[in-house]
Structures are given as C-alpha cells and as structure tokens.
Amino acid sequence: MYRLWSFTKRNLGLFFSNKASVFFSLMGAFVALFIVIVLLRSSVVDGIMASTGTASGLSDATIGSILDTWLICSSAAIASFTTGFAAYEVFVADRQSERWRDFLVTPMPRTTLTGGYLLAAIIVSLVETSAVYGLGTIYCLANGATLTWAAFAKAYGLLVLCCLSFTALTGFIISFVSTQAAFTGLSVVFGTTTGFLNGTYVQPSLLSDGVNSVFNSLPFAQAAAVVRDAYVAPMLTDLPAEAVAGFRSSMGIDLFVGDKQLPQPLIFAVLIGLAVVCSLCSWMRINRKVG
Predict the structure, then answer these.
(1) What pTM was estimated for this model as a whole?
(2) What are 144-151's contacts with CB under 8 Å, separation 24+?
(3) Residue 260 forms beta bridges with which residues?
(4) Which runs of consecutive H residues, i.e. helices, occur in the chain?
C-alpha cells in the first residue's frame, strides 16, 4: 500500500507541476462557461422562456439564476470527463519513454504501477471537478440562486460517480494510446466535443429529434442529465407548473430516445456499469502494457 501511494503521489506531482496540462484539462468547462455566459446568455435565456412558455411573468434575474445553476452543473459534468483523461498524460509519457522499466527493476510489482496510474487519474478528476463545482456554486449563490444543501450534496455525489465512471472509460481508451502526439490529438477532440455531446454548448431544444436520440444514448448526456436534475430542480419551483416539463426536456434534464424517456435508474445502472466494467478492462490492458 505504501508503494502504491508513493507511486500515485509521483504521478500527481508530475501532473500538477505541469500548469499547461492542468489548464487544458479544464478547457471544456471553461469553454462552456465562456460560450454561454459571454456569447449566448441572452439567446439562451430567450430560448428558455420561449420553450417553456414563460415569455412573461418571470424576471430576467430568475431565469438567469436558473441558467447559472444549469450551466455550472453542466460544466462540472464536462470536467468529470476531461480532467481524468488529462491525468493519463503521465502514463502515456512513461509508456513512450519506457520510463516504467526503471521502476520494474525495483521490488515494486507491475500491479502497483497500474494502480498508481488509475488512482492518480481518479484523484485528479475528483479534485478538479470539485473545484469547478464548488467555485461555480459560490458564483450561483452570489448571484441570488436559491440552492439548497440537499441539492448541492446530491449533485456532488452524482459528480463523484461521474468521475469514477469517466476515469475508468478514459483509462480504457488511453490504454490504446502509445505516443504523446496521439494523446494530445485525442485531448483536443474530447475537450471540444464533450460539451456538445452532453448538451451544454448547444441545448437539446435546438437539435433535431434524431440527433438528440443519438446524443442521449451516450453516457455523456446521461451523466449531465442526472446531475442537472439534482442541482437545478429546486430552482424550477419558480417556473409555472405547466412550464417545468418543457424546460426539463429542452435543457437536457429529461432525456428521450425516440419517444421513450430514459428512466433515471437506467442511467444510474449505465454509469455504475461503466465504472465497474471499464475499470476492470483498463486495469487489465494497462497492466499488460506496463513492462
């Protein structure tokens, strides 16, 4: 256990000492905040009011608070994927340089190396996602959002599950990557597309039913949906009852594949299954590559 923690600390130190890696691991969340807050805030607010039938009767401040909470939990959901992925840069660098051969001549077993890479990625994902979520919550509260402790805690628990699921998934993906050039290319792709796939950069109400069905079949949109439901739901009490269903479907809280709504228990099962299956697959593949 001591050797595992020592190797994990080594990986964490290498990652956090590279400020560029830390910054770009959060790029997806930053892009979401920039696009919605700076460029599209007014149009998104208008879209919310139109799609929910609340063109009158609610202040811009109330709609703005709802949008803030929706955006923060959506950005945190993006971070739960991109940050864990970025942490595997240490693994890819060691693989390309074969630096881990230096560790294998010590009494450290191969399984410890594998565990150190996976555990470091999980810790990075949890730390950075928590930072995005915590700072975002402070921002929402400062702007008058009526968040509850129960909603905050429930959404955070779901974000922890997202971190575990997506770190396992990205570990499996990274096990096929052998060069830093390939890793950089993949990080750019994932950093820019995750926000689209989970319905943050472009709201589901603006897409066709077919495109929404495809996106909603993927775990990215599903993870964002359950976090949004936990975090944003208390804010929806300010909406007229007849408008709540319209908001939930138009902003990616209630997901539909065709005309069938995805139940939350199914989404939880997908995320838990992803965490378990991909963790095992990641462990086996990385363990085979080390050495």
Answers:
(1) 0.91
(2) 144/61, 144/65, 145/65, 145/68, 145/69, 145/235, 146/65, 146/234, 146/235, 146/238, 147/69, 147/231, 147/234, 147/235, 148/234, 151/230, 151/231, 151/233, 151/234
(3) 257
(4) 2-17, 19-25, 27-33, 41-52, 60-87, 89-97, 100-104, 110-142, 149-174, 180-197, 209-216, 219-232, 241-250, 264-289
Per the structure, the count of domains in the chain is 1
Q: Which residues partner with 257 through β-bridges?
A: 260
| 126: three-class secondary structure by DSSP | helix
Determine the pLDDT at residue 278. Answer: 95
Q: What are phi and psi of 269, to 5 degrees?
A: -65, -40
CA–CA distance, 159 with 165 (Å, rounded to integer) = 10
Rounded to whole angstroms, the Cα distance separating 134 from 122 reads 18
Distance CA 21, CA 261 (A): 38
What is the residue type of 139?
Y
Give the three-class secondary structure for 261.
strand
How many other C-beta atoms are found inside a 10 Å radius of the C-beta of residue 250?
Answer: 19
The whole-number average pLDDT for the span 68-84 is 92
Q: What is the dihedral of CA 223, 229, 232, 233, to 10 degrees?
A: 180
Arithmetic mean of pLDDT over the chain: 86
Q: How confident is the model at residue 113 (pLDDT cuts 50, 70, 90)?
A: confident
CA dist 84 and 117 (Å) reads 11
How far is residue 187's CA from residue 170's CA, in Å, rounded to a whole number? 10
> Within 10 A of 279 (CB to CB), how many other CB atoms are there?
19
Cβ neighbours of residue 254 under 8 Å, at least 6 residues apart? Answer: 225, 245, 248, 261
Q: Which residues form the domain of 67?
A: 2-289
